[in-house]
Amino acid sequence: MAATEHDHAPPRFYVSNDVTYIDSRRGKKLLKYQEYTYNFTYHNAKMNTKLWRCPGRTRGCKAKIIVDCHDKVVSGTLEHDHPPPKYICVNGMYILL
């Protein structure tokens, strides 16, 4: 008989196709997912995944996202300690307000 109670938190595993890449005014590529943006941090060649972190990391935000080679979210910590940034799109360029 399987146990129904767990002594650990549920896994933080997400699979999604809702990843968008945007270019900032400074020419930097950002990942946008669920209204939040992330900066590229690391490419894991062995797993063929990329780690992206919230730009608010310097202020203590622990949100991060891992995408596979097909740009699908496979893992992450999506809880931010701040509201999402606001952007406007002008001539295809995203500008942070």
What's the structural blueprint in terms of helices and strands?
Layout: E1 20-23, E2 29-33, E3 36-44, E4 49-53, E5 64-68, E6 73-77, E7 87-90, E8 93-96
Antiparallel strand pairs: 1-2, 2-3, 3-4, 4-5, 5-6, 7-8
Structure commentary:
By secondary structure, the chain is an all-beta fold. The protein has a single domain (20-96), classed as Single Sheet (N-terminal domain of TfIIb). It is built from no helices and eight strands. The chain has a six-stranded antiparallel β-sheet with strand order 1-2-3-4-5-6, with no helix packed on it. Strands 7-8 form a two-stranded antiparallel ribbon. β5 (64-68) and β6 (73-77) form a beta hairpin. It comes from Helicoverpa armigera (Cotton bollworm). One of its GO terms (molecular function) is zinc ion binding. This is FLYWCH-type domain-containing protein.
Summary?
The protein has 97 residues and is mainly β. It contains no helices and eight strands.
Q: What are the low-pLDDT stretches, counting only 5+ consecutive residues below 50?
A: none
Structural class: mainly beta
Strand content: 35-45%
The CATH class assignment is Mainly Beta
CA(first)-CA(last) distance: 55 Å
CA-based shape: globular
Average pLDDT: 84
Radius of gyration, CA atoms, in whole angstroms: 16 Å
How many beta-strand elements? 8
Q: How helical, in percent, are the residues?
A: under 10%
Task: Return the domain count.
Answer: 1
CATH architecture: Single Sheet
The number of helical elements comes to 0
The helix/strand order is EEEEEEEE
The CATH topology: N-terminal domain of TfIIb
Biggest beta sheet attributes: 6 strands, antiparallel
Strand order of the largest sheet: 1-2-3-4-5-6
